[in-house]
Amino acid sequence: MHTDLSAIHSPLGCLFDWPKSREDWEQYRLSEEQIAFYHEFGYVSGVRVLDARQVEVLRSQLADLTSKSHPGHELFYEYHSNESQNAETVLFHALGAWRIEPAFHDILWSPPVVMAASQLLGGSVRFWHDQLFCKPAKHGGVVAWHQDYSYWTRTEPMAHLTCWLGLDDSTRENGCLHYVPGSHRWNLLPITGLTGNMDEILTVLTPQQRQSFRPVPIELKLGECSFHHPLLVHGSYENRSEQSRRATVMNVFRDGVRSASDESLLAGVPAIPKGCKMEGAFFPLLFDPQGQSRETKA
To answer: Which domain CATH number covers 105?
Structure first.
């Protein structure tokens, strides 16, 4: 049986060294200008997380994870070899890689990720769940416009953050992420589908929202990430280029978020009673800005 890495709540040591002092952490802090930009527009991008060696480690393990014969396959919360609704395109999408491969486990504790998340959330950071999104060259599928929190209302309050990390250069040509600046101030919108018609979301927008629906492309170099607000409308177009577009996504929340459901929050995960704090084996503490400490095991 494959080892379930969710039992280990600290880095295994395959990607980076954990900072040893408060001074060591300072290099990872976002600037005041970056934080102000996030609050005004709902996102911040171009944050360097990985070097070329670290990217290659993740790419190698990703190649293994895309196989249904992987010995840890049963540990995924969700696994879609192709979630695209267009038969001519492919979108690989899976949740739970952190439980299976060591690099995808350790990336959750990446110093630039957890420091920025703590600054943007205003407190200690806990893990929610991860995602893999892969668009192959020439026929990669879309991720339709959506708000992340529309899928996460089984948790409360809304104190969440998404980190989107590129494992390839992400460009307009290969289907990079697009954000609608300022849409994090909109209401919670109905779900209109994740992998279907890109324009379906327009049917649930007010005239004022349609008028301000002006997406901007978020082009990133491999190893760079963007952070976005849980209500920010975002999506990505097809990849018809000669280059793949692979990414891993880390979704986190501020420590203290509670379950809003008596049902399981993720497939195969024991339920947390409604109103109880989200914590334990599957929702580890990643970063405490006071002590920069780490949990060691569930």
So the answer is: 2.60.120.620
Closest CA to 256 of 122, 110, 129: 122
User: Residue range 256-268: average pLDDT?
Assistant: 98
Kindly give the interhelix angle for 111-121 and 32-41, rounded to the nearest 10 degrees: 60
Domain that holds residue 232: 35-287
Task: Enter the pTM of the model.
Answer: 0.96
- In order of 31, 178, 185, 289, the CA distances from 231 in angstroms are 23, 14, 7, 25
Q: Is residue 99 part of a domain?
A: yes
Number of domains into which the chain is organized: 1
Give the Cα-Cα-Cα angle 22, 25, 29 (nearest 5 degrees): 125
Q: What is the pLDDT of residue 290?
A: 86
* pLDDT for the residue numbered 22: 87
Query: What pLDDT does 177 receive?
Result: 98
Start-to-end C-alpha separation, the chain: 19
